[in-house]
Every structure is written in C-alpha cells, then in structure tokens.
Amino acid sequence: MENEQLLEQYVTDSTGQVFAITGLEGIVGAVMARYSRAESGLRETLLREFVNEDQLKLDKAYKLIERVLVAYGDDSVGELEGAHLSFEDISLLATKVIEHRRIGGSPIEQSTRYVRYDFKRENGQYHYYLPHVLGAGLAKDTFKRLTDKIFENYSAMWQPMSIYLESSKPMEEASYDLGKGLAGLAEMHTPKQVAAFKRTYRMDLKTKTCDVLRAFLPLSARANVGLFGNGRFFQHLISKLLTSDLAEANELGRGALRELTKVIPHYVKRAARLDYLDQTAKGMAVIAQRYFSDLTPCENPGISLLQPDK
Questions:
Q1: What is the DSSP string of 15-68?
Q2: All structural domains of the chain with their residue ranges
Q3: What pLDDT was estimated at residue 81?
Q4: What is the pTM of this model?
C-alpha cells in the first residue's frame, strides 16, 4: 500500500497492466534504459533503484544516462527523453534546414498561409533576415533595396487580391460548418451565428489572400518555428545546423545546444560539427564540376501532359 501511494507520483496507474509515466522529466530515459535490462517491471525498477525515501535518486539517473549515451553510444536511449524548443525570427531558408530533418521531431511553423507578412519592425524595416556576411557595403545596400521592393509589391498586391477573391466568392455564396453542418449566411438565425459566420468568412478571405501571395515572399522573410523532439533528434539536428554552410544555421545550432543543455544536457552532449559530412559535400561538388561541367541545362523544358485534353 505504501509503495502504491509512492508510485502514484510517477505513474498514472500503480497496479494496472498499462500506465503512463509522469513527473520523471529529465530522467525517464535513465529509468527506461535500466528497465530494459532488468527482470522486474518499470514500477518495481523505479522503486528499487531510483527512489529513496520518497526522493528521486537524480545523481544515479544522470550517471546512468551519461554511461549509456556517451560511453556506450546507445543512441536508442536518446529517443526516450524529449524537449520542446522554439526558434524565433529566423529566415524561411533556416526553417527548411530545421524541418527537413523530421524523424524524431515534430515542428510547427508560423504559417505564411495565415499571417500577413508586410508588417514592419520597430526600426521601420520589413520582417526579413539580413545576412551578416553581406557586411556594410554595396552588397548589403543592394540586398536591402531589392528585398524591400519585394515586400512593397507583396503589400501593394494585398488589397486588389483580397477584393478579387471576395468577388469570386461573395459572402452570400459561402458556406461553412460552424458546428451544425454546412450552411450559408441565410441560414444563420441569431446575431451570434451571423457574427460567427462573418468572422469565419473574413478569416477565410485572409487565408486565401495569404495563400496566393506567399509565393512572392523571399526566403529571407522571418518566421517562428516550435518543435518537440527526442534527444536523438536534437543531437542530429544540432550537428546538422553546426555543419551547414549557412551562417544563420550555425548560429541557431549553437543556440539550440546552449538551451537544450539546460533541460536535457546528457542527450545533446555529443552534438558537434560533422567534418565528414562537410568534406563529403565539398568532394561531391568537385566531382560534379569535373564530370558534368560541360552539360548545359535546358532553358525551356516545357510541359508534357501524360493525358492530353481532348
């Protein structure tokens, strides 16, 4: 009975065959790593080896993770602990570097489909990333001038595009499922229903406008990315960022390593720049130049329909 009460702090069911684990953030990977090598179940293993008079043996758990992950290189244990991380005000190009490594991670990005991107920052600049490598000369001035022009065009197209889309699908012809099946404005019978319908229509119109115009946004436009990932995912992601040719990615990799070290330190301890990948990429570039430099890309490949219209 005493053990069951003690276990209630860490598992959702102290006696059942199926249960979830709670309250073990940071050391659940260690508990499960030991659990995989023990004859007893997780609850018994937890009580016997990681709890002492109602106190978790954190030092033992950390040493176990250090030994399993770092000394033994058992990366599968790195998938048993996770963390949430946010990257803010990063370029769309950097978001792709992060999101292309998805196995073990679940990213969610500030969407250009739902957010207008013609707002300006406090300094009066549009919301885009200005690469430090440009320095302070002609290259920087040219980049700023052209990027500002892109955002000005994006902003100028907003109202005409919204008006066009509204004329293509007026509110009176729209229909939405607001909880009681698909229905139009004429079928809204109370002021609250009418207000909800109009609000949904305005959001729909904004979303469609964003969806069309986002194709004009440059990759330097800034966005936010939040993601959840396990330790193994973050280790590889940080290594990838640190190895990238993109200076912004290197900076984000250092930031991710710094912040994740505060919450899951043992799981990202081996994250580092991968010289092998860097040298391989450069070697492939040399080979491509050697054997394919005389090839000329087709200027207008055209489009071939698999089933031409009749």
A1: SSSS--B-S-TTTHHHHHHHHTT-SS-HHHHHHHHHEETTEE-HHHHHHHHIII
A2: 2-79, 82-86+221-291, 113-216
A3: 80
A4: 0.78
